[in-house]
Amino acid sequence: MNEIFPKGHAWIDGNFVALAEAKISILDWGFLRSDATYDVVHVWKGRFFRLDKHINRFFESTKKLRMPCQMDRDELKKILAGCVEKAKLENAYVEMIQTRGMSANFVRDPREATPRIIAFAVPFGWILKQEDFEKGLDVLLTEIKRIPPSSVDPTIKNYHWMDLVTGMLNAYEKGNDTAILVDENNNITEGPGFNLFCVDENGIFTPDYGVLEGITRQTVFDLAKELNIPISKKPISIEQLKNAKELFATSTAGGIMPITKVNGELIGDGKVGENTRNLHEIYWEKHMDSGWSVSINEILAK
Ligand code: PLP
């Protein structure tokens, strides 16, 4: 195995292959125009978490891009589970992708292309490592505007990441862990691969505009309801962000993660807040609950 590749396995053009063998043509519009959609689900201790919700979002995204996925749900599940099994991973990050594909003779009309489906499993990745949980994330609030929904619909999970990548580079240059981007009205949106939540005396809030409808974000709503904590979607200003009692990020890449510093200033007392901690604990407990998760073996045995 090529050393630059992590442990993992892929499925492409109808075959399971080692990661190093999973390749697409440079003429695929997914590569040339970022004309693709994807989803990421994780596997924890051999179980997919909220797999159907990720597949629903993936299917919806392919429809919104006018290239509805032709693969059926059970077949897709088997492919995803197959990647994890062949990679021999207990905890994995599992990505499904549909690109616009290629058109004969490089015709420009997207309708002429034949979409391509790809899947792969690699080891689980964290935006905030478990051992750094008490420290929390130290983020840079950038002046970069997230691509507006009037240009690219953020509810379609996409690879238009130049704004997010610029944010990451700015953050790393300044010694921060990651970045937060704003919208055209300077309200906060999201960061590279995560949604944001603020906690104040009235409850928990998350931006209602210009963001991906994260599955972990939805999970926070479901858990907050179980815990009887008021929760809603609404615009969040920079002032509200800085004055929050607690802040946290949510992502399939790490779950519910405290943000304890913004631009070097402490959020609240700079410690992990009570709501963040409770939500984080119950989030991980749900990973073993068959109402919320399904084992790889169960999918492969069907
Ligand atoms: N926002 C963006 C831009 C993302 O790319 C992601 C995930 O990759 C998220 C938010 C979090 O979404 P989820 O909770 O479904 O992982």
Describe it for me?
With 302 residues, the protein is of the alpha+beta class. Helices cover 27% and strands 29% of the residues. The chain contains 8 helices and 15 strands. The strands form 2 sheets. Strands 7, 8, 9, 10, 11, 12, 13 and 14 form an 8-stranded mixed beta sheet that branches. The chain has a 7-stranded antiparallel beta sheet with strand order 2-1-6-5-3-4-15. A hairpin with a 2-residue loop joins strand 1 and strand 2. The longest helix is centred in the N-terminal third of the chain and has 15 residues, at 73-87. It is globular and about 55 Å long. It binds pyridoxal-5'-phosphate. Pyridoxal-5'-phosphate (PLP) is lined by residues 40, 190, 193-195, 212, 214-217, 250-252. The site of pyridoxal-5'-phosphate has 13 residues, from helix 5 and strand 12.
Number of domains: 2
Name the bound molecules.
Answer: pyridoxal-5'-phosphate
Structural class: alpha+beta
Fourth-tier CATH superfamily name of the largest domain: D-amino Acid Aminotransferase, subunit A, domain 2
What share of residues is helical?
25-40%
Q: What portion of residues belong to β-strands?
A: 25-35%
Second CATH tier, the architecture of the largest domain: Alpha-Beta Barrel
CATH topology of the largest domain: D-amino Acid Aminotransferase, Chain A, domain 2
Q: What is the averaged pLDDT score? A: 97
In whole angstroms, the N-to-C terminal distance is 31 Å
H-E string:
EEHEEHHEEEHEEEHEHEEEHEH
Identify the CATH class of the largest domain: Alpha Beta
Got a strand count?
Answer: 15
Low-confidence stretches: none
- C-alpha Rg (nearest Å): 19 Å
- Largest β-sheet summary: 8 strands, mixed
Summed up, the helix count is: 8
What shape does the CA trace take?
globular
